[in-house]
Amino acid sequence: MANRYITNWIRAYLKQAIARIYAEKHGGPTHVIFQFVDHFELAGKQPRLSEWMSKYPQLASRHSDADGIAPKHTWYYALDLIEEDELEQLSKLVVDGFGEIELHWHHSHDTSDSFQKKLKAGLKIFQKYGFMRPVEEGKDGCFAFIHGNWSLNNSRGEQFCGVDNEIELLKQAGCYGDFTFPALYSAAQPNKINAIYYADFKKGPAGYFKGRTAAVGVKESAKEFLIFEGPFTINWKDWRFKWHPTLEDGDIGVSCTHDDPLRIDAWVRQGICVKGRPDWVFVKVFCHGGQDHRYVLGDETDRMFRYLEEKYNDGKNYILHYVTSREAYNMVKAAEDGKSGDPNIFRDYIIPHPLNR
Question: Model confidence over 227-240: pLDDT tens digits?
Fold first, then answer.
């Protein structure tokens, strides 16, 4: 059954629903920090990339946030499908400010040793084109991560991973966080939902199923790894299936419903934030923009951005910011350090733009 993993998250959902009723209201506007992450799998098919190269700049240029910045895409490019000419072409979109490249990877039957060797070799290829270069001495790179097939830390077995201490190895290599989740209908879905939190270095799924919520005044320790989740809820306002409310996970794809205000409002309503900074709300939606390029680059996405700008950028109740994963991470770090006010000034707070390293 599709919902056999509901026990992974239903308790967290119920606790959050109750807590939201009694949550204190903060003064002033809410900053909505919106990132669009892409499990980007071109598989060597040039027409997919050509669509992105031509259509995304046109689409994004029609829109802007409170800072005058167009929507930014984060392409998590699949390491196992790497084509250097594709990276060269994508670098033009990065240079023009339309987004950034991070790491996506499907791998299987790996050991700690084989994982590290493949990762190090892959990062060197990306770095030839200006991506994922390290900012700390002794690190192989600096990058965000999305696990292909949702199998972080071997949570779905060797056929989708094989490395029980994956999050520890990722951090050692210079990864600043995982942006994979939520994972609806999957054994990989952690117990925590709608959260930005820190996992410890336990092996297997236990290594990230639970963790410490990111909070103002609490710094990340050397043995913690950031898990940055997107919205995950039962949307009681959305009954498109008639006989049950929609399970909302921020997936943008062939259903072509991401321009629906019922969905967009649900993303914001989850209030994902650093504890103690509720006025900075992070929204992370995801897609598979290689395969689904026609839908992701279509009119629905245009209308989605338009609705975000009309409702969540009035300057009084809401202020909208389009960000990449790196910029969202930097804002999280700023919040943890007690920064407040306009998150726009913290886009490069710790990790600089990939072309400025």
Answer: 999 999 988 888 88
